[in-house]
Amino acid sequence: MKQIKYITVLLLVFFMLSCDEDFLEPAPISAVSGEDYYRNDQELEKGVINIYDGLQGENSTSSNDNHSTQVEYYLTEMRSDNTRTKSQEGEAAQFESYDVQAVNGIVYDYYRSFYNVIYRANVVIENLDNASDANRAKFEGEAKFLRAYAYFNLVRLFGDIPLIDRVVSPLEKEVQFTRVSASSIYDFIISDLETAVVSLDNNYIPKASRAGAQALLAKVHLTLGNYTDAQVLLESVMQGGFALQSNFNDVFYKERNSEIIFAIEYLPNLSDDSQNFSAEWLNAVGRTVGVNYVTTEARAALDAMGGERTQYSYRQDVDQPTQYQVAKYFPNGELGPDYASDPRLAGNDWIVLRYADVLLMHVEAIMAGGSSTSAAAALSSFQKVRDRAGFTDPVTSITKQELLDERRVELAFENQRFFDLVRFGVAQEVLSSFSVDNGYNFQSTDLLLPIPQAEIGISNGLLQQNPGYN
Description:
Keywords: Cell outer membrane, Membrane, Signal. Residues 44-222 form the SusD-like N-terminal domain. This protein has helices at 2-18, 41-56, 72-75, 90-96, 105-126, 136-158, 173-177, 182-199, 210-224, 227-238, 250-253, 277-280, 296-305, 355-367, 376-388, 400-410, 417-423, 427-438, 453-458; strands at 83-84, 161-162, 179-180, 260-264, 293-294, 314-316, 324-326, 350-354, 372-373, 398-399. By secondary structure, it is mostly helical.
């Protein structure tokens, strides 16, 4: 990972020194090109590793670093009814109170981080002609899967966004800063994932794989209401040998287990490859005063419907009994209040796609936007998830609300809740009620985040802001 980072830094320095016209103007990182690199399989493979490295994000406190996945919970869980801050202070509290500002540094961090991932993918794709016949398809499949994943998150969070499908120069401002319709972004995502499905196999799970591409593409189709397409893809994944872990806790602390389809991997006690979000969610061991704390509403849902999952999903803060912490990602799986290693250098992998999610998406695809289903295939998938949670009574029908509730308690604190509410068409209703109950400021325009003001400034007015933000 370090070697790739050094290469990127050298390319940035070279580019800055060679472009006098734009030297003083902040240029998007997606404009950098490594003309003398990526000439063979070995170098292209490093380029692919560099994309994963971009998804990991930097384990640092510098606001200029890309933190990517490590700050995603702010934009997702903390904008749902699942989590909040401990102190209701600072930029973090803007997410829970639905008062996010266009100058919010966390939003800007995430936005630029994922466009950096897209840049890294574009570099690999642009140099595929230099790959051997034996490896070209795999490199293309991985790069396009990861690019599609980045665009899928961005379009769901920001709506219409710039579509950068190649390495561009700093002078191509129309490409960099022209917002393209969300429907066009989704067409691009589907194309990338369809390429990944035919280009990849299942030899590299939990990294990009055919099953991962199929599962992610199915979620895209569910988002768009293409239920039949989603069902076919999900049933293909279900034939791929995945299985639920018998112990729910093992999903998160037995890495590369049979339930994991795609995960962003971290290693403990290495500053370049560890993560700090695990520590951030604890009290007085992270770099904040505590974030992603469990809401009263999420705790009530887990107590009522979580079954055996509840004890592994949240815990009472041992130091402040009125607070409740997310328990799925305690640093390195250590469950006590004390940690043998530095919790700010945690090695817990971040799970993006797992088999329980596939089973519940399968129910959603069969329900096809309806209010309920009694289809045998849907009941079978739903029952598997319920059985693992300790609810073994036979299911005879499933309502839309029951499916949404099951997704909430099964996938709690895994950055799924906000997207689920939007996809099920109930986000405005649920979040409005949640906001009223807690004295927050939710408006319908809060379903999209603001385009970072820094990007609008760099664009010299080409980028337009989302409604509801100054």
